[in-house]
Amino acid sequence: MPVRRADIHFVPFVVFTVAGMVLAAPTAVPLRAQAQAPTQLPRFEVASVKPSTGRTGERGDPSGRYIATRTLKFFIADAFFFGQPLAMSRVIGGPVWIESALFEINAKASTGWQPSPDGPPRELFLMIRSLLEERFKLATHIETRELPVFELVLARANGSLGPELRRSTVDCDALIAAIQAGAPRPTRQPNEPPPCGAMRGPARVLAGGIPMAQFANMLTLVMADANGPAGRDDGRVVIDKTGLSGRFAFTLAWTPERMPEGTPPPGLPPIDPNGPALVTALQEQLGLKLHPARSRMEVVVIDHVEQPTPD
Predict the structure, then answer these.
(1) Which pLDDT score, from 0 to 100, does residue 254 have?
(2) Beta bridge partners of 69
């Protein structure tokens, strides 16, 4: 797992995690709808919250475990993370310490997470929010403001796709329904993407079959990481404007501005130090590009927050 945005390390591909890592969420839920979540938010069965001086990192897994060391502002972004990465620039207000002080959350839900066609389980993010409300006395409201974004569009005038982008032939609705009914998950080779999902690793995205809206969400994370230590603090949201329907399989590989330290995970080829930059790879390999634009976006405004109560 990536542990610090300022210190990039090679990490294995991950399929199920939360903010700043890989997600499988084809659609976004408006923040106002999130704010009107169930009156009684779901809660972790057990949860520990304490100040930390350790390295930052974050992971969630299908067993129901959630472990993270982040700033409170990052956790708030996670708490409103349903289908689309929430840039921390969309978390407004609060005291200075929410952007600097680190906190460790080690929590476990009473049951494991169930697979969902809408990506990571909504319950996880609601549990994070309920924990913040309980331990940090967090209170928020939603406003709409105009913000800079990136639009994901076709790069070629004739609308043709790049050589690495192809339509998926898998019936994902049927596959997901079968898994939810108890069927075993399809077997995969190491570092092979799920047939109806995607994985993000060091300078690489592998997709077995995802909608363009989901890819735009992943690009939001990729572009945020490309900002270096600032990460999601100044990352722009990427919005799908390709007009492409259905699911797509692809491999996208690029050379980052700063090469990761260490060695790549087993089975992965090393990053080409002379390869294309991300924006160039996006055009050459997938036939897509990012167009700067502005869009009215909902933001989370902090009304009240306190230092956490002790365990």
Answers:
(1) 93
(2) 57, 104
Residue 110: CB atoms within 10 Å: 10
Question: Tokens standing for 251?
Answer: 């491999």
* 173: pLDDT strictly greater than 90: no
pLDDT 10s digits, 35-83:
555 568 899 999 999 999 988 887 777 788 989 999 999 899 889 876 5
Which residues does 210 contact at the CB level (< 8 Å), separation at least 6?
Answer: 24, 26, 168, 196, 197, 198, 247, 248
Q: How far apart are CA 136 and CA 49, in angstroms?
A: 10
Position 33 scores a pLDDT of: 55
Query: What is the crossing angle of helices 122-135 and 72-79, to 10°?
Result: 140
Sequence-ordered alpha helix ranges (H) in 162-204? 172-180
Structure tokens at 88: 């921390």
Q: Supply 262's token pair.
A: 């260490």
Tokens 């990192």 belong to 57
Distance of alpha carbon 41 from alpha carbon 103, whole angstroms: 22
Q: What is the dihedral of CA 17, 18, 22, 23, to 10 degrees?
A: 100
Residues with Cβ within 8 Å of residue 209, at least 6 apart in sequence: 168, 170, 172, 195, 196, 197, 247, 248, 249
In the numeric block, which tokens belong to residue 91?
Answer: 């978390």
Burial 33-59 (b: 16+ CB within 10 A, else e): ebeebeeebbbbeebebeeeeeebbbe
**pLDDT tens digits for range 144-160:** 999 899 999 999 999 99
